[in-house]
Amino acid sequence: MKIIMLYGPSSSGKTTTINMVYDAIISQSFVVHPKRQLGGNSADFEAVLDYTKEDTTKRVAFFSMGDFAYEVVHAMSFYEGMGCEVLVCACNDRFNVPTNRLKNRYDNVYPPIPKTVNRSDHKKANEQDANTIVQMI
Question: Which of 12, 29, 88, 136 could form a Cys-Cys staple with 8, CB 3.0–4.6 A?
Answer without folding.
Answer: 12
